[in-house]
Design a protein that fits this description.
Elements: E1 2-3, E2 9-11, E3 13-15, E4 18-20, E5 25-29, E6 36-41, H1 45-64, H2 67-83, H3 85-96, H4 100-123, E7 128-129, E8 140-148, E9 151-155, H5 163-174, E10 178-182, H6 189-200, E11 208-210, H7 215-224, E12 230-234, H8 237-246, E13 251-255, E14 261-264, H9 270-282, E15 294-298, H10 302-313, H11 334-349, E16 353-356, E17 360-361, E18 364-365, E19 368-371, H12 378-381, E20 388-394, H13 397-405, E21 409-410, E22 412-416, H14 420-429, E23 434-437, E24 453-454, E25 457-458, H15 463-469, E26 471-479
Helix pairs in contact: 2-4, 2-6, 3-4, 3-6, 4-5, 5-15, 9-10
This protein binds nicotinamide-adenine-dinucleotide.
Residues 155-160, 164, 182, 184-185, 215-216, 219-220, 223, 234-236, 239, 242-243, 255-258, 289, 383, 411, 457 line the site of nicotinamide-adenine-dinucleotide (NAD).
Length: 480
Amino acid sequence: MSYSTTSLPTATLRIGAEWVETAETDTIRLPYDGTPVATAARGTLELLGRAITAARAAAPAMAALANYERAELLERIAANVRRDAAEFAQLISQETGRPIQEARGEVDRGLATLAASAAVARDLHGEVIPLDAVAAGAGHLAITVREPVGVIGIITPFNVPFNLTLHKLGPALAGGNAVVHKPSEQTPLSAWRLARAVEEAGAPAGAYNIVNGLGREIGAALVESDGVDMITFTGSVPTGEWIRAHAGLKKVTLELGGNSAVIVEPDADLDTAIPRLVQGGYAHSGQLCISVQRVYAHASIVKAVTERLVAAVEKLKLGHPSETSTAVSSLISEAAATRVEQWTRDAVERGGKLLTGGVRHGSTITPGVLAEVPPSARLMQQELFGPLVAVNAYERIDDAVAAVNSTPYGLQAGVFTQHLQRAFALARKLHVGGVLINDVPTFRSDPMPYGGVKRSGIGREGPKYAIEEMTEPKLIVWRV
Ligand code: NAD
């Protein structure tokens, strides 16, 4: 760690065994009120090249680590994060504006991701292949072993900067890879601090390199580099499309946007559903890729759902992210809040009813609920990334299914009903990566395969699934 003349911490680059400062820096500000919290070194193409060279040099050392050694490395990283958990939470809160209680939760989630990554490192194995299943294979025996892909380029978004980094770094190290990471230019602090935890854990120099900088410059060059074997990206659809088009023959996994929906059937237990909808719709001001954005409630209960949701949402305390009582704080920037305000206005102009909230002050938006929003409104089709939920009524369940499936996204969806048969039937009809029965789509835990269909992405995360993408099956055949 180093300090600039204004005594703000500087998030340096991490290249091989060096912490690198740069002539140009960016000021990282608390999104809530613009207070400067740190400066960040701004990487150059030359420094990115050095980081890729460092990763290439580290790749053989990472590949040579035994499964148990990779697992123990991840466990030591976790121990360092646990020791400094309060500092990590503060950095996450400062760079994103996420309420401190949620930021602490993100650190806990990161620890779980590291533990799951250590477990998959120990368990990494290939398979025995029955070649004699066909005549041509008789007299041959085959196994596969999992080998690292080599150097993995990680590109992460602003919203969950610590845990999404670990969802990539954990399985990458577990698979024996070296990494070059381009964090979001808005939120580079927790990843930079993580690099110290990795260094202190005794990782081979160059196993985890960080180059901050602009996406269209540093991120794009990472994607196009011949020195990188795979890109794992989480972020928006337009960036994901650009990456897919420019990555050449590299492996690419994309975790992209969503506009998640929930169906609430007439027999749903609203005592369960309402608190979960509040959690799913307003945590991190709705800036989660699986935030609840659309609720389809049966016409017989839609009044109860909206009234109870409005009452619960009006109790959410909006405030400074450092206060433990704050439930909802700012969006990532005033520009983001202005866009959410415009989309809310668009929904109202098209006939939607704003029942509560939706008012912007600087970079904050008061938690809101909309009703009767027509499908043509932008927030019914696109990703809002703001603290508002639209509740619409349906008469026939097939209409609700069609509405859920009608958007370009397909990350996760939720269904609240006590009718087991109907729940499973609905789960099969919803075109998404995962369906949550009696829970919100915002639920995620590390053992599960996580990812989307349609424009929500390609590939699955969760360490068990990510490590499959981050290793190759090497085939070994004996003639016996
Ligand atoms: P973004 O696409 O603007 O930026 C993401 C990252 O890509 C940043 O590091 C950025 O610098 C970089 N980047 C930008 N242009 C690039 C280019 N041409 N080449 C390479 N890198 C480039 O996304 P954001 O606004 O930071 O994050 C919000 C988005 O992330 C939302 O759409 C959200 O749904 C999505 N997200 C998805 C998941 C998931 O798991 N599916 C999780 C969290 C966030």
